[in-house]
Fold:
Amino acid sequence: MRSTWLACASAALALLAFELPVTAQRASTLQVRATTTADLRQWDTYVTTNARSGGLRLRTADQDPALPARTIERFDQLHDGVRIWGADIVRDSETGIPRSIFGAIAADVQVDTTPQLDAQAGTDALLRLFGAGAVE
Structure:
């Protein structure tokens, strides 16, 4: 985990250090507020299908302490295995039956997630920028 974080930090710093042109893309966001039976069926299918295919990843599943039959699941949206910040869905179920599904989903994400630097190149960039103390 630490090496993954170091590689990500290294890559970010390297981009800043070399002043590579970076463009931000803001994906359109779809707000989800499903409470009717028809909407719940549609969004429950979406959540289940995308959780199985890897488009959503279960972050937490907690039982409501006041209502033990209730489960609150929180899913993060992923694009090519990378979490999309702020794109998540909450499914509130009672005995396996969804009662509400809400959150925000990024639609039509088209961002290249291919790393441009390997871990060693990122580490080397950190060392050039901050000296030997930057790695430990």
